[in-house]
Amino acid sequence: MPTIKEILQTMDYGPAPESTKEATAWLEQHGRRFGLFIDGAWTESATTFATNNPADGSELAQVTQASGDDVDRAVQAARRAQPGWVALGGHGRARVMYALARLLQKHARLFAVLETLDNGKTIRETRDADLPLAARHFYHHAGWAQLQQEEFADYRAVGVVGQIVPWNFPLLMLAWKIAPALAAGNTIVFKPAEYTPLSALLFAQICQQAGVPAGVVNIVTGDGAVGEAIVNHPGIDKLAFTGSTEVGRIIRKATAGTGKKLSLELGGKSPFIVFDDADLDAAVEGLVDSIWFNQGQVCCAGSRLLVQESVYDRFIAKVKLRMQNLRVGSPLDKSNDIGALVDPVQQQRIHGLVESARAEGCEVWQPACDMPQAGSWYLPTLITGASTSAAVAQAEIFGPVLVAMSFRTPHEAVQLANNTVYGLAACVWSESISLALDVAPQIKAGVVWINTANQFDAACGFGGYKESGFGREGGKEGMYEYLTPLSEDARPAAPIVAEKGRVKASDEGSPFAVDRTAKLYIGGKQARPDGAYSRAITGANGAFLADVGEGNRKDIRNAVEAAHKAAGWSKATAHNRAQVLYYMAENLAIRADEFVARIAAQTGSKDAAREVQASIERLFYWAAWCDKYDGAAHQPPMHGITVALNEPVGVIGIICPNENPLLGFISLVAPAIALGNRVVAVPSEAHPLSALDLYQVLDTSDLPGGALNIVTGSADELARTLASHGDVDAVWRHDGSAAGCAEVERLSADSLKRTWVGGGKGRDWFDAKQACGRTVLQHASQVKNVWIPYGV
Ligand code: NAI
After folding, report:
1. Structure pTM?
2. Which of 618, 669, 508, 735 is nearest to 610 (CA)?
């Protein structure tokens, strides 16, 4: 026993173990054996597997490996329960969700200890971060349920949702998934990760107590095969997945063309940027939260440290000193910082990556401290001397391993930060607000924290750019992931094909009867098609109207390149973009008669005049939105604000509908450019001439060259090229081809670009409810949350 004097000399912590009494009692109460939670009741446990305590390797309980039939029964129960859950109304659902939030708080310590036992993360984190945040999610989303009628009047719940989560934040991920889904009126089949199923099973019990109706929340446990059964079940309307990019890609492929709504929250390799004017001591503390929180098993962990050269040595010295003071040990000890890794498999994976870096000549530094003997552990690790392309600098390590590099200028910092396939999060440390706010928007990531790290709140959306996935969780934007616009239901199920042969008037005397070849429009100039082939376009009466270029892969490549060069359009002010769209409307109005005649000649439509008027109005509509689609300032519970910015997606490929060759084209292209995207558009395959007639309108409207490029030809072939192009950020296809839309979704999996497809359903392009509104704005933008705490 040390004397008080000795203790004061060393200032060592005494042991402060958390009791496991209640958690153990709960496990015993269930005989340490769990069935599934389906239709409000527990099933018998047939085939089971063990879930272990990673801190010492001991078995905690046996948990059921669900069968395909179990998943089917869970989906059926959810389907049966859904109308009743919707019928409860927003207020009714809000009350149930409020009860869930209260019960989570009431049993907070039991949840926290159980989570620590099952996952290995420290009690400090489960108690102070995971539990309060999970409860907050249910409170916040109870509010959205209450407000549903007012704020989401034009939407309905998607239906039955399948949700699959990883093991790093078992209960928090459950809350992120289940709360918004319930608020919107969906019912749920939820699968926790196989390493960490226990807190979800305790949550099932809480659902019973809170009065969640039977079948509304179903919990099925098991491994990836159970996940696969959920993904492929035809009764699932929407899937929400958090986990590895590899599995995310598999799910994207599996759901392509099925009509299932999808959100993916995948991996990351987030930069932590320290400028020379940063408060270095504060930055070191931020770094601890960023990379050593949860043993680095965090999708948005700041795993790449980028430090300005002039302070690099000083900063690294401070980091090492701080690492030396991190306490590694029993996660149940309240004064420990670093707990156990979730499973020996992860330990081996991390070990392999670090050792290969060492073999490549990197310096690997670890503090001198003891580690427990049993269980799976890894010391905090700092790697220096890695090249930017080294595996440790590019791959998601998902462990307590930091890779440090230096940079000279802010420009270089941004380049290094963006040198990754991921785009989940970033931290920027500088005492200069102007530098920080200049750098933050240049980073391709869904969340940027300024002078802070790993902040989360239910009001602020979270999610990735690039291969970190798509869709947002939290915030109003997160609610839309669980809602379907009512206008979708109003659309006919049958594909709409171009109507032909309705008008028999001959085109004698028509100004379009002359033989001419319309070129492509690339980089603001007319361009001959690369293949030097043309296709004949005939009118409604079958007579030849004109030749158009047969665009090919090379033309798309040129168009995408031109679109990238027109990056200035994305930086143009909203006011400026609005002006250009208003000019386009004005110039179209001046030439309205020509456009009416052209539409009539192509489609035989009697509605041509109405179509041109509607097109002019639509340009006005999207011009109006340009400077009104504001982001939001969230007020999470901290001293500061979080600014949610709507940003353009980037370069969007758009396959336009066949019907309404002018209105369909403008209805899709105008919102995309209104929000600052650059576009490669493929006009109506059957009636492309109306889009080509726009060249002069575009030239006289100050739209910069390359912001809108037009390539005519085969919709299927051009869509295929766009969907597989690595430098296209999103593809929209609305020409009524179900197979074509499925293909776009499938091909988009490689670079995980966003897609918006019409499937086999046609839209009435005259109907503003179907063609306008927030759904379109959401497709044309992505949300970035910038956190700005005040003071020091
Ligand atoms: P994982 O992506 O395989 O597992 C996540 C969840 O998906 C689990 O519930 C699993 O059962 C389920 N799953 C697995 N295969 C599936 C399939 N084919 N269809 C549907 N569901 C499926 O992640 P894992 O194997 O646990 O970890 C491997 C690596 O993935 C980690 O080392 C880390 O790099 C990364 N990872 C990233 C996460 C993140 O939040 N970014 C979370 C978990 C893992």
Report:
1. 0.90
2. 618
